[in-house]
C-alpha cells in the first residue's frame, strides 16, 4: 500500500520543511510514502472562501483514481490515540486499498464534494493548528504509527 499526503499550498517556514523532510526520509523505510503539494489558489478580489474551497476541492478530487481511498485531516473528525491511529492504518493495509490519500486542506477547509467523497475524517486534536503545522504533525504521526506496528521503541506507552 502507498500513502500520499496531499497538502494545499507550499510550506513557507523552513523549520517545518526540515521536520517534514526528516520524517519523510524515515518513512521510506516502512512504507511507500509521498507528499504532494497542490498549488495555492490565487486570491483575487472576487475570490471568497467558498470559491477557494471549491477550486481546491476540484483539484483534490482530480487526484483520486480507482483504488485510491480518501481520508481528510479535519478538526471535526474522529480523534485517535497514536496506538489507535496505527491500528487504523494497519486495517487499511490489510483491507487492500492500493493507496490512501490523506489530505490537509487549505485554511478554509474542504468543499462539500470532498467531504462527500471522503471515507473518513481524522482529527489530530481539539486544538486549532495552522494548516502548515498540521503537515508536520501528520507526517510524524504516520511515522509513529509505522514504528508502533513494527514494535520499535520510538513510541512509549
Please give a structural write-up.
The chain has helices spanning 14-27, 49-62, 82-95, 112-117, 131-149, and strands spanning 2-8, 32-38, 68-79, 99-104, 120-123. It starts with a strand and ends in an 8-residue tail after the last helix. The protein contains five helices and five strands. It is 43% helix and 23% strand. Helix 1 runs parallel beside helix 5 (131-149) and helix 3 packs across helix 5 (131-149). Strand 1, helix 1 and strand 2 (32-38) form a beta-alpha-beta unit. With 157 residues, the protein is of the alpha/beta class. Strands 2-1-4-3-5 form a five-stranded parallel beta sheet.
Key traits:
157 residues; alpha/beta; 5-stranded parallel β-sheet; 5 helices; 23% strand; globular
How do the strands and helices of this protein lay out in sequence?
Blueprint: E1 2-8, H1 14-27, E2 32-38, H2 49-62, E3 68-79, H3 82-95, E4 99-104, H4 112-117, E5 120-123, H5 131-149
Parallel strand pairs: 1-2, 1-4, 3-4, 3-5
Helix pairs in contact: 1-5, 3-5
Distance between the termini: 27 Å
What is the makeup of the main sheet?
5 strands, parallel
Approximate strand percentage: 15-25%
Given as residue ranges, the uncertain stretches (5+ residues, pLDDT < 50) are none
Tally of helical runs: 5
Q: How many strands appear in the DSSP assignment?
A: 5
Mean pLDDT across every amino acid position: 94
* Proportion of residues in helical segments: 40-55%
Rg from C-alpha positions?
A: 15 Å
Strand order of the largest sheet: 2-1-4-3-5
Output the structural class: alpha/beta
Order of helices and strands: EHEHEHEHEH
Shape: globular
